[in-house]
Amino acid sequence: MTPPAASPVRHMLLTLLGLMLVALNLRPALTSVSPVLRRIGEDLALTTTGQGVLTTLPVLFLGLAAPLAPLVARRLGMERTVLLAVALLALSLLARPYLGVTGLFVGSATAGACIGVMGVLLPGIVKRDFPNSVSLLTGLYTAVLCFGASIAAGATEPLRLLFSNDWRPALGFWLVPAAIAALVWWSQQGAKHFPKSVSAPKKSLYRDSLAWQVTIYMGLQSALAYTVFGWLPTILQDRGVDAVTAGLALSVSIMVQVITAIAAPWIASHMRDQRFMIVLVVSLTLLGLAGCIYAPLSLLWLSAVVLGLGQGGTFSMALTLLAVRARDADTAARLSGMAQGVGYTLAAFGPLLTGVLHDIFHGWQVTGIFLGLIGMVAIIAGLGAGRKLYVLDDRNPAAVAYQNWRR
Question: Regarding the domain delimited by 7-406, which CATH topology (the fold level of the hierarchy) does it fall under?
Fold first, then answer.
């Protein structure tokens, strides 16, 4: 009687492997640009604002594409939708460096849209296939995501030097892990076995206050993250750090995110709710940012590590909220679509306004204050989102108050 039990186990292992490979590709398209951003700007005559638009586009389209993910998944199934997105991601990364300014911007936008679709569906797949290990699996794939982001941030500038100081093949290199993920996802899952999702639900999340708190927290912590991804090497270079070291500092910061990406959701799962952990990790993020912008360069590596520990926790807690604030996989996917769609669209203004503020004030001092305000509002939203409640639950205090108001 042993053989029949092997199939479900094998399916779960292959699903886990596929999730990790997709997670590995959720950030290299974004973090590979900032280490060579100055070279791109010089080569293509982009102003600081133009460079800000380049770092903003993938985040903006990540947000714009996110609400489409649950709609497409209901027709094609979550796994098939992920397969199409990761394959298109590989193609966009191939085209991005070699089609001039237009190709650079269009390719970046397309890559962001693909990442948005994949990022929305992963929490739903975890909720569906690993319902008893949501926090652990969320932390694990967030750690893999951080690993991919870190490698891209740290290796892109050395790759440019390896390719005769040409940033184009250095950016194009990152299509390789995306192509591998697409091939493995296809060969191991088998497109004909991809399940379809349930019919469209009736209740709207956009009238749920808890869903909005999750969304605002997701968006604001992402605004901080993408500002770091897009601008930290440039900020450090303006402070006198050489390009390789600046890229390495970003890489180290992202690499240490692995620690809190796993630890923060796991520790929070043993607490009454997620509020304390959210306040802790956002505070660490703000402390690390302040160190990178204002502290002496002798404290650079300490600041980068603190920043990474904070951001690993803020992101993994955001993804955890998408799963634990929903009662089922379909609601988790819908909440993920709302939170990442609205949230990432909001987050896109982080790197954009950072570039604008630099152009206006010719420095990074005001940027630090701007990022601090974002972090404080994120804490306020997180205190609401971290409560042990469920979206679309008539027993939630906010839902009861809303119903009484309607009466």
Answer: Growth Hormone; Chain: A; (1.20.1250)
